[in-house]
Specification:
The complex is a heterodimer. Chain A is mainly alpha-helical. Chain A is built from twelve helices and no strands. Chain B is mainly alpha-helical. Chain B is 78% helix and 4% strand. In chain B, strand 1 and strand 2 form a beta hairpin. The chains are: A mainly alpha, B mainly alpha. Chains A and B meet through helix 1, helix 2, helix 3, helix 4 and helix 5 of A and helix 1, helix 2, strand 2, helix 3 and helix 4 of B.
Chain lengths: 232, 100
């Protein structure tokens, strides 16, 4: 690691960048909570999911599988598989926090680790800078997410017919945005295409929840695709 | 009844995060294991998008949701801002529903 000035000045995010992160998580929280409320999930369960899982994709995977009639075990497994990337993020974060944060602080950092906070933190030159950048970003993201989840419930109560406004399209659209970033490498693009094909082929013939789990096999196919950047 | 599914998922996800922080450390970086961990979420997200936009109760259905998803894909491809992507998707879905 860099051993330059270990002061807190090495913060690589601007206030407007942090605000942008918070806003994007606020919008995400609104979307997830609106869709769950629309699917008749109890408000307290929406909030429980927002704060205990702290994973938009995990929450959506769980409720897509369970909501379509799949087994709880299949839903939980799907939520965990989609959240496997947080494990990798924490490996990167661990390398930067090990020398500057106590174990309890690292455990807390891992619990709230999401893609944007880890991405901005590891840009810092020093480990101390990574730590303060990380907590700043994490605070904005958790705050945005929590407020958005609450706001989504409120909006859900006000809007009589969310489907007429196309609110349910927000979830797949945000997942497509996540995929859009991922599939810029060829192996990820192949993985996504195979997963879609497998899911659509199996959905009519297998019990709900099972096609998603079979589609994970697409990642093994992607493993054999060379990694160089796709042309996109 | 759903709350225990939520808590089970939460415990699993926290465990994955702590695994990365305290157990895997440098060992999982680079190589096939890291690549697989990067691709597994891609496969699940793609599968969930397919289910959310093209199926209803196990049957393949093409409706306003597919139009919204297609519009979102175009917006993402044109590198639009996330908020723009979401608005385009919702508006397209609402429009197709209104006219069909």
């Amino acid at each position: 690691m860099d051993e330059q000035s270990a002061d807190g000045d090495d913060v690589v995010t601007t206030r407007s960048e942090l605000f942008g992160l918070g806003l994007s998580y606020f919008v995400g929280g609104v979307g997830v909570s609106l869709v769950l409320a629309n699917a008749e999930v109890a408000p307290w369960i929406v909030i429980l999911a927002a704060f205990s899982m702290y994973s938009a994709t995990g929450t959506i995977a769980l409720f897509t599988v369970v909501g379509s009639g799949g087994a709880v075990a299949a839903g939980v497994l799907s939520a965990m598989l989609v959240s496997a990337r947080f494990g990798i993020l924490c490996v990167s974060l661990s390398a930067r926090l090990r020398s500057v944060a106590a174990p309890w602080e690292r455990a807390l950092a891992a619990t709230v680790a999401v893609d944007p906070s880890v991405a901005v933190a590891i840009r810092a030159r020093t480990d101390a800078g990574a730590r303060s950048t990380y907590w700043r970003a994490a605070l904005w993201l958790v705050g945005g997410w929590g407020l958005g989840s609450l706001a989504g419930l409120a909006v859900g109560n006000l809007v009589a017919d969310p489907a007429a406004w196309g609110f349910d399209a927000v979830i797949p659209a945000s997942l497509i945005a996540i995929l859009g970033n991922a599939v810029r490498t060829r192996d990820a693009a192949v993985t996504a295409a195979v997963a879609v094909a497998v899911t659509l082929a199996l959905a009519p013939v297998l019990p709900a929840g099972v096609p998603v789990l079979v589609a994970v096999g697409a990642a093994v196919v992607g493993l054999f695709v060379p990694e160089p950047k796709a042309t996109a | 009844m759903t709350w225990h599914a939520v808590l089970l998922s939460a415990v699993g996800i926290v465990a994955l995060r702590q695994l990365g922080m305290f157990v895997l450390r440098g060992t999982a970086r680079g190589g096939a294991a890291e690549k697989l961990l990067r691709l597994v979420p891609v496969s699940v997200v793609a599968a969930v998008v397919a289910l959310n936009t093209l199926t209803t109760g196990g049957a393949l259905v093409v409706d306003a949701r597919a139009a919204g998803a297609a519009a979102a894909a175009v917006a993402v491809w044109r590198r639009a801002n996330l908020v723009v992507v979401l608005v385009v998707a919702a508006a397209t879905t609402a429009l197709v529903r209104a006219v069909s």
